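SUBJECT: A protein chain and its fold
Encoding: whole-number codes for local backbone shapes
Chain under study, with its fold:
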Amino acid sequence: MNKYIEIAGRKIGPNYPPYIIAELSANHNGDINRAFKIMEEAKKAGADAIKLQSYTHETITIDCDSNEFQIHGGLWGGKTLYELYKDAHMPWEWHKPLFDKAKELGITIFSSPFDFTAVDLLEELDTPAYKIASFEIVDLPLIKRVAQTEKPMIISTGMANEEEISTAIKVARDNGCKDLVVLHCVSGYPAPAEQYNLRTIKDIAERFGVLSGLSDHTIDNATAVASVALDACLIEKHVTLDRNGGGADDSFSLEPKDLKALCQDAKTAWQALGKVNYERTEAEKGNVKFRRSLYLVEDIKAGEKLTKDNLKSIRPGFGLEPKYYETSLGKVAKYNLKKGTPISLKDFND
């Protein structure tokens, strides 16, 4: 397994800060200026990349209102698939302006293609990477086509079983993909945190020999930040300007302040992991003097012995360590010593 991959020069792996993808998805709500604004806010928040979804209602489904094409219940209940994707899709002609905007902002941009025509479009735009959405993990011809570009690939695993994940990884690798991150995901919108089973992230890495991360559809940041402790090297979250904006994905997306918190907290969590360490840290070194040590708590004269009445283990820590308490009892002072004197064996005879 590679210890890291690179997307647009940014190294991604357990030994680097978590790579944060701001998923724009359908939160443009039909307005390219809203999409631009989301990109600006993502950059300000500290996200590493903006991700799009590249499909149209014509390429992802057909205009049919039979029962199989109806959405029953949930966030999008009452619509047909065609109606949902017609409202939600990112127009083809928006892609170049969005890629240009990302270059202007200095933020990486790439997309999830949903068919070959989307891959062709993204190749024309020289996308630096690709994302395979959870619903497309079973579309092996699409994975093969993306792998043949030999660009980094990220695959989400929502709804997929072990065999489907293994097959998708094999197809990607067999067709030229060398740089791969596999994201644990629960395809619920939103998804309950208690169903996320975050320990799967580490198992994905070990079982399949890949870098692993998290595609998070919970409504806050706790799940995403916790994933860092399980070596998630990449976190994807949907972002919006306003959760009450009325768009297809707005209600379970992060607003700018929450995205900023995620970027900061995920990095802090990664820094806190550090390494196995039993040495004194820099933050601790100045506090050693406040440990307990052995002190005189009464004046004693030359020739007098240390006793349980005049010798105590107290703070601060400039005297002998408390472990020497028993062996210090009975030692004889060489000269007069005042209360508050730290015990040093040079001041006493046996």
Q: What stands out?
A: Residues 189 and 217 are 6 Å apart (CA to CA). The first helix runs from residue 32 to 45. The chain has a mean pLDDT of 96. The domain at 16-55+90-273 is CATH 3.20.20.70 (TIM Barrel).
